[in-house]
Amino acid sequence: AHDNENFIIKLFYSGNEEDSDEYRKFKALPVAFHEVGNHSDLELASLIDSENIDILVDLSGFTKNSRSMIAAMRPARHHVNWLGFAGSMGFYNSRPLFDYIIADNYVIPNGDEKNYAEKVLKIEGCYQPNVACRSEFHPVKKKDYGFADDDFIFASFGQSIKISQQRFDSWLKILNGAPNSKLWLLESNSDCADNLWEYSEKRGIAAERIRFAPKVSFEDHMNRHQVIDLFLDTFPYNAHTSASDALWASCPILTTSGSTFASRVAGSILMSFGCGELICKTEEDYTNKAIYFAHHPEELKKVNIKISERKTSSSLFEPKIFTKRLENIYHSILSG
Fold it and tell me: Which DSSP symbol is given to 137?
């Protein structure tokens, strides 16, 4: 989808060689693919400099095994923070570590640009790219996952580190207000499960009402979204990829938006789908709306239908459209 007449793409992969479809697909792309996992930061910066890079985009930020500090050596003409780190990369030696951050009008509202070290560049629509080619769903039922057919399934499939005490307390209030419901979380480790069960039971919610979904293949993971009635977002760190995955499965997401980039991502995704009514203003609003949907399935069905229709009209799952918008950002960098 890239404009190959105006852009030459080069990939620098700092991870380990792995036996995965994603790794093989990237290796097979008709672009330069540099494996730099064994390079020191100095060696990597030297390589990037020798490749004559105009725009260097960091897709990891300050996450595990980050190589972001090579930006301090200025190996490229322009350095861009995008996608991997939901926030500013800050300053180094009294200057911004990165020149630009790519965002959108929702994750960084007008007026909040002053809170970022980087110059904020806003892409049209949602800043998050998504693939359109996904496996077809095969029919499943709630009982296939150990639930009763009449259970109302709340789910949140983010990492357990995103579960704050305030948000978990809200989930317990939701379960209390919707007696025929279960909460389905992504499996993390035994300590996580034991701690959440113990915490829940002390507050009157039986441990059996909180289930954990095991790690499975991506296709099976996507398929099980079909039995979810309502996806409950985390806060203050929102669902990111798991939010767009839920929408692809036509699963409604209930979220709240804060003042930080990380707390506004699910809201950005929902706004790009024309579903701003699922963005709650307060924790109380979030709790009450979740309980309302559990007791009014006909209203939730309307949201399901709306999301299904938006899959074909929203640009969220249109990578070719997204690529053109991203290239417009790159053009603005080069012309600036």
Answer: P
